[in-house]
Each structure stands twice: as C-alpha cells, then as structure tokens.
Design goal:
InterPro entries: TagF_C. By secondary structure, the chain is an alpha/beta fold. It is built from 17 helices and 15 strands. Helix 11 links the parallel strand 9 and strand 10. It has 3 domains: 165 residues, 3-Layer(aba) Sandwich (Rossmann fold), CATH 3.40.50; 69 residues, no CATH class; 205 residues, Glycogen Phosphorylase B (Rossmann fold), CATH 3.40.50.2000.
C-alpha cells in the first residue's frame, strides 16, 4: 500500500480517548500511513509524540447554532410523527430565557422549527447550515490547510460538534473523502447528527440500521460497521496491575471486596447522591452481618460538583472516591477532557471490583467485557431534587430497547433490593453475565479488540 496522509479531525475532546489514547494511532502508523491529528482541543498532542496541526480559529458562524438546534427539533418532530412514538420528546431540553441573547436564540429556533418541519424544510435547514459555515474565516483557513497538506482523507471522531462542519465542508470542496464516527450508543435517536460526510463508521449492525432509519438520504454503501475503540482497553492485559498495587495506590482496604458505584452527570441523575447513600447503607448493613465490603465511587468525569460531599463524609469508612483522571480545560462539559492515564484507571477499577451499580450507563458493557454484573437503579427516591424527573423517563430512551432480555442486568426496583443483590454477587450466587454479553454483541461489533483495525480497514478501502 502506498503511504497516505490521513487527517484525524478532533473537533472537540471527546474523541481523544478513542483515537489518541487507544492503539488506533499506532496501528495507522504500522500500516504505513502518515497520521496527523487536526486538533481543535486544548490538549497539545505533540507532547504525547503525535503529529498534529492545531486549529487556531475554530469558530462557527454565530447563526449556525440556531439552525443546528432547529434541525434537531425538526428531526425529533418528524421521528415522533413517522414512528408514532412520544419518546422523542424526551430528547428535548427546555428552552431557556435567562438573558436577552439566549431568549432571542431560542425564539428564533422555535420559529425555524415551526416554519420548516417537513422533508423539504429539513433539507433547507441543512443547506443553510452549510452556507453559513462557508462564510466563516474558519472555513477559509481550513481550505488553506487542506490545500497545503493534501491529505488523502479527513476522518472526524465525533458527529456532534458544530466545529466539525467547516473542516469537513472544506475537504468536500476540494474533493477529499470525508468520514465521521458515530460517537455513542445512544446518539442517533437523539438527533445529534451535525457533521455530514461521505462515509459513516458505526459500532454495530444495530447502529447501521438506526442510521438508515433516521437518515434515509445516507446510502447503505456509505456505512462501515467497525465497532468502537472505546472497549479495546479491556482486552489489553498489559494495562492491568496487581490488586495489591491498585488498592495501595487508591487507598482501598485489601481485606475488603469493593462494589463500584458509577455516577452520572447532574442532568441525567439529579438524585445520584441519594442513590449512593442508599447503596452505602446497604453495605453498612451487610458489614454488620460479617461481610467485609466497601464502595469505590467513580464519579461522572464531567461532574466537578460538591453534591456528593455530604454522603462521602457520612460514609467515609465505606466509600472511597477514586476520581477519574480527566482535566478541566474550560467551563463547558466538552472541555473537560480525559487523560491517557484514565484508561488504565478505569480498566483496573473494573478488574478489581465485584460489580457496578449505576443508572442506565454504558458501564454495563465495560463490566460485561470482564464477565462481571451490572445493577441498574430503577426506583425514584422520596423528596426528589427535580420533581419532574424519574428513572422511568431514563429507561424509556430508545437505546434501552436493544436490551435482549430483562435479566440482562440486575434491577434495583426499590431500595430494599440493594442489599440482597450485592449479597448474591459477592457470594457467587449471581455470576452469570451471558445476557449482558449478548447485549454487548448487539451494541458493538465483535471481537471488540479489533475495532481500530476495522476502522483502518475501512479507511484503506476509501482512500484506495
């Protein structure tokens, strides 16, 4: 194969873990490619030995956000009507009117949504986004970079950010093939498509079917099923350290078995601290019966709040917080970025805990990769932080419909279920994760450790 220059577009930091900290980059080099990160993150990847071109002025047109938001609302309207399913309303956020600027944007979004909710209207909105972005200095600078560097392809690591639009349009203007990776297992029903490319890389056949369902203008021949590098680290044994070393490094008691409580962000689970307290109370009761258990608390990496402080102090003899190794580079959630060290921390957290408890997170698949069970919280607490929030809303999201059977996870349907569920796991009465692993195979192409190779195979096909 002749050597090709491949641009890996990082429009924001969420693609770092999959494409900079995995073996993806190394594999591309081994195959003879010149791999260059087109970097719009605050991280200097050159410090890690990567070749990069830093995006200096990655600003979208000020009006693009309104059209992008209108596109999301129009797609949700159409999906709700076409599939006769009110669940699509759950993917909307309430409009804010906290200041004049925000109020005007949201009024404009609502007007565009009302005016253009139709197939032709959606096409008009999509076209208008492209026109607006082509008016920016950002687009012109991207053109100059591409004319100078002449890459064989531009591969975008995330379909969601507005900052991906101008670089991809510039590549298409010059006839350079473009592709984007669909970042997360729940993204397509939520109408998060912002980047429009020549090719799309998806986790699974299930996600391919979703892509064709929600975006019928995308041809089947433009879709590559590759899996995601997100789970590859679980199969890299060199990342594992001894239990004793992990416990010593994180202040864990070697005489205890630990349950992992994996936190959510405050929007997804406003009552997370109370659920953590319920789990701590169950563990306290089990320890009173002679068990030696603790809780390893891994908070959501983008949650830097103090909302857990009271519970952590109350149960400091039971709960050990092990903070994700992410760095806060700005005020927005997408400027809180992973570090390479966090991959090893997460892998060893799973390897050295008995199970995970959380609210509907994809950690079920991380634990399934280690043949360990996941328990999903499935009850509302009294005196909820947000009265209109409920776990029932969470589990109605479309991505949970891919679950093959209710026994795929352990369900904590009430507070009293926690103690007995933990007891069954730590005593070996529930060690079968076959259904969870079946779900993993539905969501992600197998073998999971081959995702980076499959992505490079697809890139090779495109550039050749």
């Amino acid at each position: 194969m002749s050597k090709s220059k491949i641009f890996i577009l990082l429009p924001d930091g969420v693609g770092l873990r999959n494409f900079a900290y995995s073996k993806f980059h190394e594999l591309g080099i081994e195959q003879g490619h010149e791999v260059i990160f087109w970097n719009n993150t605050p991280f200097q990847l050159s410090d890690l030995g990567f070749e990069e071109i830093v995006i200096r002025n990655g600003k979208s047109n000020k009006r693009t956000e309104v059209y992008k938001n209108a596109r999301k609302q129009i797609e949700l309207n159409r999906n709700k009507k076409q599939f006769n399913d009110a669940v699509y309303d759950y993917y909307r956020f309430p409009y804010s009117y906290r200041n004049i600027k925000t109020a005007l944007k949201n009024i404009a979004t609502q007007w565009l949504t009302l005016r253009y909710t139709s197939d032709d209207g959606l096409q008009t909105i999509r076209q208008r986004v492209k026109e607006l972005e082509k008016q920016t200095s950002y687009f012109r600078e991207c053109l100059e970079v591409l004319k100078k560097e002449k890459p064989a392809m531009v591969f975008c690591t995330n379909q969601r950010p507005m900052t991906a639009i101008a670089p991809l349009l510039a590549a298409q203007e010059l006839g350079i093939p473009t592709a984007t990776f669909i970042f997360s297992w729940d993204n397509l029903p939520k109408a998060t498509m912002v980047a429009e490319t020549d090719y799309y890389f998806v986790w699974s056949d299930f996600m391919k079917a979703e892509l064709l369902k929600y975006y019928p203008y995308i041809g089947e021949e433009s879709i590559f099923v590759t899996g995601t590098p997100q789970f590859e680290s679980h199969y890299e044994k060199e990342r594992l350290i001894l239990r004793s070393d992990f416990f010593q490094a994180n202040g864990l008691d070697p005489d205890k078995k630990y349950i992992c409580y994996s936190g959510d962000d405050i929007t997804t689970c406003p009552d997370d601290p109370k659920y953590l307290e319920d789990v701590a109370e169950a563990v306290e009761n089990l320890n009173a019966e002679g068990y030696k258990l603790g809780i390893l608390f891994r908070r959501c990496p983008v949650d830097f709040s103090d909302r857990f402080d009271r519970v952590l102090e109350k149960y400091k003899a039971i709960i050990v917080p092990v903070k994700p190794k992410w760095e806060k580079k700005g005020g927005m959630w997408n400027t809180i970025l992973p570090t390479p060290e966090d991959m090893n921390l997460q892998v060893n957290t799973i390897a050295h805990t008995e199970m995970v408890i959380n609210l509907g997170s994809s950690m079920v698949f991380d634990y399934a990769a280690h043949h360990k069970p996941c328990a999903y919280i499935n009850y509302d607490v009294k005196n909820k932080v947000a009265p209109d929030w409920s776990v029932q809303k969470i589990y109605k999201y479309i991505h949970f419909r891919s679950m093959p059977d209710p026994t795929t996870v352990l369900w904590l349907n009430e507070k009293n279920d926690i103690k007995e569920t933990i007891k069954k796991v730590v005593t070996g009465q529930h060690s079968n994760t076959e259904m969870a692993e079946t779900w993993f195979r539905i969501i992600n192409a197998f073998p999971p450790k081959a995702a980076s190779k499959k992505i490079w195979d697809a890139i090779n096909t495109i550039v050749s």
